[in-house]
Every structure is written in C-alpha cells, then in structure tokens.
C-alpha cells in the first residue's frame, strides 16, 4: 500500500471513529431515556400478565424496523414503503389472533392473557408503518453523512411511552387500561420519530411534494439487496423473538425476565457496536466501490478491534455487576426480589454473547459494503436454526436462562460462519493484530473484574434491603475503578485501541 493509500485509509478510520462517537453519544442519550422508560414499565407492571402481553405484542412491529437520480429514488422508496407497510399493518391488525398464537403459543392459558396480547398487537401494529419509514429515513440520512438525528430519534419514543404511562395511570388504576395507554404511547412515539427525520431530509434535498412515482428503475436493484439485508441484519432480533415464543411456554414472567435482561445488553450493544457498524458502512462502501480492498481490510480491522476493545470489558462488567444493576434500575413497585434475581440470571447468559453480538454487526456491514447479501442470509439462517434447537434443548433444565444462553451461542455460530467466509473473500484483512488486541483486551478485562469484585464486596455486600443510594455508590465506584484498572492495564499491555478511544474522548471534550 503506497503512502497516498495509507493516508486515505487513515482518514477513513478517523472518520469512522468520529462518526461512531457522534452516533454513540446520541444513542447514549436514547438509552438513558430508554432505561427510565423501562424502570417506569417495571415499576407499574413488573413481570406479570400485562408485562408479558405487552412485550410479546411489541416484539412484532419492532422487529420490522431493522435500511438525483438518487434523490428521486429515495422519494420513490419512501412512497412504495408507505404503501407496502400500510398493507402489512392492515393484515396484521386483522390477523392478530393468528399471529399471537404463532409467536406466543403459551399465552393461550389463561385466555385473558391471549385476549390482552391480541388487543395490544392491534393497537401497536400501525407502528410498523411509522418505524419502517423512520428506518428508511435513517438509512438515507446516514448515507448522506448525517448521523445525529437518526441516532437521537428513539429518545422521542421513550419520552412518549413514559408520558403515556403516567398520563393514563392518573385516569385509571386498572393495569389493563394502563398497558393499553402504553401501547398508544408507542404510536405517538413513532409519529414523533418520523417528524424529527423529515426536516433533515428536506435539508439534504429530498422533496416529498414533487411528483414522483412509486417505482423507480433503481428500485429493483435496491429491493434485491434490501430484502436479504433486512433479514441478515435482524438476526439478533429474530432470535430474541424466538426466545419470546419459547418463553411463552414457560412459567408466567419468563418473557418479561428475558426482556429486561435484553434491555441491559442493548445498552453497550447500541452505544458501541451499532454506532460503529452505522459509522463504518459508508467508508467500507466507498472503498469497495473504488476497488480498494487493502483499505477496506484495514478499515474493517480498525472497526472490529475498536468494538471488541470496548464490548469485552462491557461484557465482563455486566456479568460482575449484574445483580446490583438490575436491583438499582428495576427493583421497585411490582418488580420484586424474585423478579430481580431471575432477571439477573438471564442477564448473565445474554452478556456472555455481547462480544459476538457486537462483532457480527461489523462483519455483516463489511459483506453489505461488498454487495454480498447472500452470505449473511445463509449465516443468519443457520444461526436461527441453532437458536431454536439449542433453546429447546436448554429450556427444560435451565428455563428462561437456557433461552438467553441459546441466543448467545447462536450469535457465536453466526459470527464463526461469517468470519470463515470473510477470510476467504477478503485476504487483505490483517487478522493477527485483531486477535492479538482481543486477547490482550481479555487479559485487561480480567484484571478489571478482580478490582470490581473486591470493590463490590466492600460497598455492596450480598444482603437484602440495600438502599438505592448504596447500590448507586457501589456500582459507580465499581465502574469508575474498573475503568481506571482496565485502561491502565491496556496502557501497560500497549493495546493500540486505548489511544484511539482516548483521542476521541479528548476531541469530544475540546468541542464541548
């Protein structure tokens, strides 16, 4: 690689890191409000019938949100998507009983649980239209280099859901009425998310009011790429949905335990992994289009090493601090001690797969940049089958924890297949530095874990009835102390990614 190519690759890597920082910061804000939303939800509904019913109903529309001539193509795509999703929404509302019996067959007993889930599904299914359009708008804006508005949009959904719970609770003490109000808040949140994207699309040249047909010549190619792309990118959500289906056959509350645990895993997954995958795709696509395979390999290696450097210690931290974190965030109101313990157990097994969930997103983005949608679809299909088989095998002895572990193991299977194929397809990737950085990151995370465990034994003794302030103090001390230990170990081991993260933090502080 000549000096100009190296400089170009370095510039792309810098852009990836900077864009990941922007998306990550916006996603952090969204996740904070998301946890406020979940705390409110947990306090009102705990892990009872209404919680299980809402979560199962919400999984269905939420699953479907997972991507100039170019400007005219974008407008046509939005119009065609609007028509298509409207048809899907109508079918979904009409066929809600059949859908729920398929997605959550265990909800048939008691019949009230099935009936409530069907009603909630019918209320929220139009959200498919809204979030589908939001997802396409986000993709268009990301391609145009605008990352902030798409990343911050979920904040509006969280605020709408929080507001709806409190508003309806003032009107009725009925849990059923309150959860229906929450479902209505989902629709309001979808409208607000879409409204946020529109001004930025207009600013970037999208003119909705100009005459444009539903079909554009480039739509066929987009469709051929998009359909498998949606399937491959949504494999994690599909596996979570499979877990919901199987959990509906377990004792009441199992669906809710998995939901709350998954929400905690989504924090580092959304902030770091999804942010990096979103930021790296435009750079990878440019390099693939220019035939710069060496640069593409370097950018992939940069993104992969950076994501693993952040998500491996996050995984270890979640495992070590899972009990006090769940207690701090959720243990109040209807969310009792037993629910806290069972949710913490599920979090352990979800957290074991965090590194794989994160790495898959980077590898999949690389295949999409090379316009290879076939390989991610094959890997995703194998992963889903593995998740079903492992889940069925483990749900008997391990209950809902077996389903969480099955999701993690299935993601590792997905990653293994993708990496094997990528090694054959893209020989320019320098795998040794990635593996070396990963092993050193694991060692640094192990040192961090020892420090966090010792801190928690002093500040958060294993007793019942600990106050929120004591939990917050212990968790904060563990996180801060663990971070210091981890970065000190990374510095001593000369892990290159720590300098990149430090540089990003310094630039953020200088701008503020």
Relative strand content: under 5%
> Order of helices and strands, N to C?
HHHHHHHHHHHHHHHHHHH
- Total helices: the number is 19
The total strand number stands at: 0
The rounded Rg comes to 23 Å
Ends distance: 37 Å
Shape: globular
User: Structural class per helix/strand content?
Assistant: mainly alpha
Query: Could you name the ranges where pLDDT drops below 50 across 5 or more consecutive residues?
Result: 507-512
Largest sheet: none
As a percent range, the share of helical residues equals over 70%
Q: Please tell me the overall pLDDT.
A: 79
Characterise the protein shown here.
- Helix content is 84%, strand content 0%.
- It has a domain at 49-216.
- The longest helix has 43 residues, at 3-45.
- With 512 residues, the chain is mostly helical.
- The chain has helices spanning 3-45, 49-63, 70-94, 96-103, 111-124, 127-143, 148-171, 175-203, 219-233, 235-247, 254-289, 293-330, 337-351, 354-369, 374-398, 400-425, 431-459, 468-492, 497-511.
- The chain has 19 helices and no strands.
Please describe the topology of this protein.
Elements: H1 3-45, H2 49-63, H3 70-94, H4 96-103, H5 111-124, H6 127-143, H7 148-171, H8 175-203, H9 219-233, H10 235-247, H11 254-289, H12 293-330, H13 337-351, H14 354-369, H15 374-398, H16 400-425, H17 431-459, H18 468-492, H19 497-511
Helix pairs in contact: 1-7, 1-11, 1-12, 2-5, 2-8, 2-10, 2-11, 3-6, 4-5, 5-8, 6-8, 7-8, 9-15, 10-11, 10-15, 10-16, 11-12, 11-13, 11-14, 11-16, 12-13, 12-14, 12-17, 12-18, 13-16, 14-16, 15-16, 17-18
């Amino acid at each position: 690689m000549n000096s100009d190519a190296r400089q170009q690759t370095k510039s792309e890597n810098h852009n990836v890191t900077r864009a990941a920082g922007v998306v990550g910061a916006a996603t952090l804000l969204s996740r904070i409000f998301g946890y406020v939303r979940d705390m409110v939800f947990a306090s009102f509904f705990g892990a009872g019938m209404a919680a299980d019913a809402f979560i199962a109903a919400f999984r269905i529309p939420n699953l479907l949100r997972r991507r100039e001539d170019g400007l005219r193509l974008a407008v046509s795509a939005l119009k065609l998507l609007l028509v298509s999703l409207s048809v899907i929404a109508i079918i979904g509302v009409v066929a809600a009983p059949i859908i729920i019996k398929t997605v959550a067959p265990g909800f048939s007993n008691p019949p009230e649980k099935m009936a409530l889930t069907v009603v909630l599904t019918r209320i929220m299914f139009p959200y498919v239209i809204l979030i589908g359009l939001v997802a396409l708008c986000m993709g268009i804006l990301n391609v145009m280099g605008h990352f902030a508005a798409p990343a911050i949009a979920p904040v509006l959904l969280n605020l709408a859901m929080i507001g709806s719970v409190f508003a309806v609770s003032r009107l009725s003490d009925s849990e059923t009425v309150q959860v229906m109000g929450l479902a209505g808040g989902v629709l309001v949140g979808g409208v607000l998310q879409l409204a946020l994207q529109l001004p930025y699309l207009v600013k970037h040249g999208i003119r909705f009011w100009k005459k444009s047909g539903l079909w554009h010549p480039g739509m066929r190619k987009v469709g051929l790429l998009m359909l498998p792309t949606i399937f491959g990118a949504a494999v994690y959500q599909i596996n979570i949905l499979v877990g919901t289906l199987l959990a509906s056959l377990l004792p009441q509350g199992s669906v809710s335990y998995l939901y709350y645990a998954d929400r905690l895993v989504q924090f580092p997954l959304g902030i770091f992994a999804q942010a990096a995958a979103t930021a790296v795709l435009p750079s990878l696509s440019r390099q693939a289009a220019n035939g710069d395979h060496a640069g593409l390999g370097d950018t992939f290696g940069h993104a992969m090493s950076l994501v693993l450097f952040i998500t491996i210690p996050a995984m270890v931290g979640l495992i070590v601090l899972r009990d006090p974190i769940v207690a701090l965030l959720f243990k109040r109101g209807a969310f009792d001690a037993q629910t806290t313990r069972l949710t913490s157990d599920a979090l352990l097994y979800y957290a074991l797969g965090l590194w794989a969930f994160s790495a898959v997103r980077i590898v999949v983005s690389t295949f999409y940049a090379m316009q290879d949608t076939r390989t991610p679809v094959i890997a995703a299909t194998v992963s889903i089958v593995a998740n079903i088989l492992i889940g069925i095998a483990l749900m008997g002895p391990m209950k809902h924890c077996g389903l969480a572990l099955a999701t993690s193991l299935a993601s590792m299977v997905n990653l293994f297949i993708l990496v094997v194929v990528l090694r054959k397809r893209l020989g320019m990737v320098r795998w040794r530095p990635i593996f070396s950085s990963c092993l050193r990151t694991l060692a640094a995370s192990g040192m961090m874990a020892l420090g966090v465990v010792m801190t928690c034994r002093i500040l958060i003794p294993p007793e019942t009835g600990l106050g929120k302030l004591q939990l917050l103090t212990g968790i904060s001390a563990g996180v801060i102390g663990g971070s210091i230990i981890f970065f000190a170990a990374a510095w001593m081991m000369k892990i290159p990614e720590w300098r990149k993260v430090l540089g990003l933090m310094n630039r953020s502080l200088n701008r503020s």
